[in-house]
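ingest -> validate -> predict -> emit
validate: passed (alphabet ok, no gaps, 302 aa)
predict: started
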Amino acid sequence: MKDFRKYQGIFPAFYACYDDAGDISPERVRAFTQYLIDKGVTGLYVGGSSGECIYQSVAERKLLLENVMAVAKGKITIIAHVACNNTADSRELAAHAESLGVDAIAAIPPIYFHLPPYGIAKYWNDISDAAPNTDFIIYNIPQLAGVALSSALLKEMLKNPRVIGVKNSSMPVQDIEMWRDEGAIVFNGPDEQLLSGLAAGAIGGIGGTYAAMPELYLAIYRLVGAGEIAKAREIQDACCHVIYKMCSCKGNMYAVIKGILRAQGGPDIGGVRAPLYELQPEDLPTVEALAEEITALVKKYA
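emit:
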């Protein structure tokens, strides 16, 4: 029987860390990793959507993960997203992640061409076979991948003993209940519904805005565990309002978050990679206001 306690808690989705020329910065990766460790997070989800993985080469993704692990190995739980839009590159990243000692690998289904369920299962199992000693987590994000996980596909994947669960970023909370009922552990994906996901039985959360305000999400997780739902709901509502303001900017949300981190005195991890839209001058007042708002919320709740 596997011990899943290391997967309980709050996992910020790790952002791409670029230097001023737009290349992966090992120094900034290490600084950002230590920054999040110091915040007390359970672990990190590296190389996913928030990490701009689809805009990076295999070599860049390896470099980023190597530098995360140089700081985090043995300290917190690391889940490495390794999917590329072809099997060979995905297997290469899976084997590399295992060689570094990550706790789990994860993968979205192939995008663009919509494969039948048996094709998706083969893709995921081929990736898992390249990391035979590492847990595997399915990443269900139908609104971006264009393919939704089904109960039948999950049942098929659970025949692979390395498959332990799902990072569920679909919006229906019912999906968390369904995947859990099939015997999988489930991570809540949408940040706006962490409270609901935990109530539905999610083991923890993996989120794209967690790194901007980890203290608040840690507080939600702690309060739900203590049965203090009304207080947790109050913080969840506050987080949602922050997210809505982030999304109101002209620049991409991750450019906004990186600006907030700088305004908070956190690490400078650069901008975002084109075609994602960089932070714009008209966004700066919102970024500064959000940095102040988050600071006040952390002081109030965390």
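The chain has a mean pLDDT of 96.
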